[in-house]
Design a protein that fits this description.
Layout (H helix, E strand, L loop, with lengths): L1 E4 L15 H6 L1 H7 L3 E4 L3 E2 L11 E5 L6 H13 L3 E6 L9 H8 L11 E2 L19 E4 L4 E4 L14 H16 L4 E4 L31 H14 L6 E4 L6 H5 L10 E2 L11 H15 L6 E3 L8 H4 L4 H11 L5 E5 L57 H5 L5 H14 L1 H5 L1 E4 L6 E7 L4 E7 L5 E2 L6 E6 L10 E2 L4 E6 L3
Helix pairs in contact: 5-6, 10-12
Bound molecules: alpha-D-glucopyranose.
């Protein structure tokens, strides 16, 4: 299980209302207690914060709001001491417009780094092509100083790097080496499918209209670039891993980014973010992932992250659904990703218009983590950069740790069960017949098997499973024996019963 930390909102230790690296280090004991195998830390590099760290002006330094390089070293070492691996969030497709590379590039048409970014003349109609940026508007900005347009698939403050230029490849490889030498275990690679581009930058077909480029860009040049990244990462001792964000809608297209075992180790599977809480939809998603990824591409599962509404909010807010979703996420075949606070059953914060700060409207899920029940919730200030999530007086680490019935303990138990069951860790998955409201599947290896049943409906339902079964975990803490029925919203893991 990989736990995503959004450092601005994890824990502040300085009193400026923004979380920092020392805050993460201070809570490694909590992450170990929970059962986290690895953390992925969203970007903490120097950044003007137009996209809250996804616009980087120095890849090899820590932004002062988060601390120093020494804090990063302490975090990495502390995590390793706690048995937790550390993945950094590497953003190869674009830099900040304040990065010295771009400052040089835009200074003149003859600048030494002019070609490190995409500069083009406009057409009579305006922009050099018809691509649209992810946060709206054209993917091009005109620069008066040199009379050309530059490409940015996100904000104008995030110019796209030209990976067709070997100097760029070399410079970005140096960034990877810088952090691998500091002993990180790998990278979550931001929108990695965007890095290869046809230098002609052809228009996208008119029938795609104003669909933004990020969800459709799929250029064969990217694969060679990823293979080089993989070779670099593999050249380091120990097990290092790269997980790519490939924001394509089609799982068979995402499959190609695993290559022949020589590209990404894993790619995000975002289907669950758009899957309603209905058994039929989940059966379909599991079927698609199994079919399209096949045997050689290891799946990933995610219900919440820093770019989307938290699943508790998305799925209607109920405690029962959040608990059942935890059972589902942690029993599917593949690596689950947990977004900080998901284990507390958090919902999105309600952010008033005057407090909104994100250009992509994603503030709600990025609310700070409440650690205690006190008014400051364990932060040094009552008023962090975003408002607290709802019910922070009850949904906080202190309260939930003290309550064995809290969802936090369910997550912890599920993680423990998963660790000790080969079937859950790496067994096959087979969908089983079940009543319409129930998602049922078997996980199995030669020596081990588990059956998972999730009642996505609102009434009790009987489910027949051949053989004798015991409950290992139920999402309903009042249930400890398998009697052939699932309560409304209940999910269970079953193991073969004693004969
Ligand atoms: C990814 C990140 C998102 C960011 C974007 C641009 O999708 O997850 O937060 O805004 O890339 O870097």
């Amino acid at each position: 299980m990989i736990y995503q930390i959004y450092p601005r909102s994890f824990l502040d230790t300085t009193g400026d209302g923004v979380g920092d690296l020392a805050g993460i280090t201070a809570r490694l004991d909590y992450l170990r207690w929970l059962g986290v195998d690895a953390i992925w830390v969203s970007p903490f590099f120097r950044s003007p914060m137009a996209d809250f760290g996804y616009d980087i002006s120095d890849y090899c330094d820590v932004d002062p709001v988060f601390g120093t390089l020494a804090d990063a070293d302490r975090l990495i070492a502390g995590a390793h001491d706690a048995g937790i691996r550390v993945l950094l969030d590497w953003v190869p497709n674009h830099t900040s417009d304040q990065h010295p590379w771009f400052v040089d590039s835009r200074s003149s048409r003859r600048a030494s780094k002019r070609d490190w970014y995409y500069w083009r003349d406009g057409r009579r109609s305006g922009t050099p092509n018809n691509w649209r940026a992810a946060f709206g508007g054209p993917a091009w900005t005109f620069d008066d100083a040199t009379g050309q347009w530059y490409l940015h698939l996100f904000l104008p403050q995030q110019p796209d790097l030209n990976w067709g230029n070997r100097e760029v490849v070399h410079a970005m490889h140096e960034v990877l080496r810088f952090w691998l030498d500091r002993d990180v275990d790998g990278f979550r690679i931001d929108v990695v499918h965007l890095i290869g581009k046809d230098p002609a930058l052809p228009d996208q077909p008119a029938e795609l209209g104003s669909v933004d480029r990020v969800g459709i860009h799929d250029d064969p040049r990217t694969h060679g670039l990823i293979r080089e990244i993989r070779r670099l990462v593999d050249s380091y001792p120990g097990e290092r891993v790269i997980v790519g964000e490939v924001n394509l809608h089609d799982t068979s297209a995402i499959r190609t980014y695993y290559g022949a075992g020589d590209e990404l180790h894993m790619a995000f599977n975002f289907l669950p973010l758009a899957t309603p809480w209905a058994a039929g939809d989940w059966r379909q998603v599991i079927g698609v992932v199994e079919r399209d990824l096949g045997r050689d591409a290891w799946p990933t599962w995610v219900l919440s992250n820093h770019d989307s509404r938290r699943h508790r909010t998305r799925l209607g807010g109920s405690e029962a659904v959040s608990r059942a979703a935890a059972v589902l996420l942690l029993t599917l075949r593949g690596t689950p990703f947990l977004f900080q606070g998901e284990e507390l059953g958090l919902e999105d914060a309600v952010v008033s218009p005057e407090r909104r700060v994100d250009p992509g409207g994603r503030d709600g899920c990025r609310a700070p983590i409440p650690w205690t029940a006190t008014p400051t919730h364990g932060w040094p200030t009552v008023d962090p950069w975003l408002p607290w999530p709802p019910h922070a007086e009850a949904r906080n680490v202190q309260r939930e740790r003290a309550d064995p019935g809290a969802i936090l303990h369910l997550y912890r138990r599920l993680l423990a069960v998963r660790r000790t069951s080969p079937a859950l860790r790496h067994g096959d998955i087979t969908l089983l017949d079940a009543p319409a409201a129930v998602l049922a599947f078997r996980r199995s290896t030669h020596e081990d098997q588990r059956v998972v049943l999730v009642n996505l409906g609102e009434t009790e339902v009987e489910v027949h499973v051949d053989g004798r079964w015991d409950i290992v975990v139920s999402s309903d803490s009042a249930v400890d024996r398998w009697d052939g029925a699932l309560r409304a919203g209940e999910a269970v893991i079953l193991q073969p019963g004693a004969a």
